[in-house]
């Protein structure tokens, strides 16, 4: 070999550049770009599902206190599977907190920094699963049982963003097919497991500042001699919808909650049948002086900051008075699916989805908005000036109404369109409208 050829070979061997280097430098493959870490923070990008892929087993904290074996989480009502009452029993909440403190849980996923895994379910929810295992008893098998219900009740084409608690949306093509979203394709946003409540065993408790507190069975609510039937076409929108875009476009500035990376699909329309909550309150003798809000209690168990609770939020009486809050048991002509809140849920028209409480078992009239974390510490608007790290819950405004969101659903993001002078563009239902945006436009 000539010296020239040898030198050439050596030079070739020195080429350590990755072949797609120029694509990366030009930002053409942003998801492969990685992270320029100029801090002391150790960031694990290899496992976006948990910060450490090996930490999927339940581990005791070193020096953990002895467990109290007499504390077993039980279901207290026959025919109510997966329902544990927390709000009535502060001592029980305290015991759950103590048990919870014995364990060391893996840190939250870092998917906002690393690429999302190309899997369906996208994220597994390892921490939520471990929280259930740690508390045990009636909640131990809830993650597996809830996933079985997803498989049974949802369309096989769903995009599972988070396996547990289950969060899923329909792919764009299926979502815009019909103005009314079929039940199997309606998006799902859960904060915990899915309770299964037998309709015959169910009752709704109405208490707090009402003149005549009552428990109403499903048959009572469905009795047209007591309450006129209400039927409404309502578009539900989760306030987290399009979070993924927000993360991509405004990294570090916006909503990077360790939750479902929603695309445009956390919005769906259904025909709901039920009764107006206003009539139910009237049937309970109306509100007492000073009552201004209605607190809604969901039967699922929600883990937040090392505490266990039921899913609780509130809406103002003015919203109820306008007949814009329905207690619904039917969805698109079928009994409410378990995953959408059977046997009874709230449907709050024109508010963020979070107020439409599923597995609704209690309505309590109160003087103030709910202090529960989902109402008072989450779903808040902040003035931009506060800056992300100065946002204290009491500086926020609780989100009820939410601006309209509309999106082009076809063509897709960054898709190249070859056309003959006219581009076909399709849209999706807007909040509060029943009809999809379906436009054809030319340039
Ligand atoms: N009990 C209960 N109700 C709930 C939730 C929940 O986690 N638990 N999630 C809320 C949120 S954030 C939304 S967006 C809607 C979603 O309703 P869907 O799953 O029927 O689409 O339910 C709301 N009601
Ligand atoms: Mo939501």
Automatic annotation (TrEMBL):
Q: Report one GO cellular component.
A: mitochondrion
> What residues does the Oxidoreductase molybdopterin-binding domain cover?
191-372
Q: Name one GO biological process term.
A: sulfur compound metabolic process
- What InterPro entries does the record point to? Mopterin_OxRdtase_euk, OxRdtase_Mopterin-bd_dom, OxRdtase_Mopterin-bd_sf
Annotated region Disordered: the residues are 43-68
Which Gene Ontology MF annotations are present?
heme binding; molybdopterin cofactor binding; sulfite oxidase activity
Q: Where is the composition biased (Polar residues)?
A: 43-53
The protein's name? Oxidoreductase molybdopterin-binding domain-containing protein
Which organism is the protein's source?
Coniochaeta pulveracea
Q: What is the lineage of its organism?
A: Eukaryota, Fungi, Dikarya, Ascomycota, Pezizomycotina
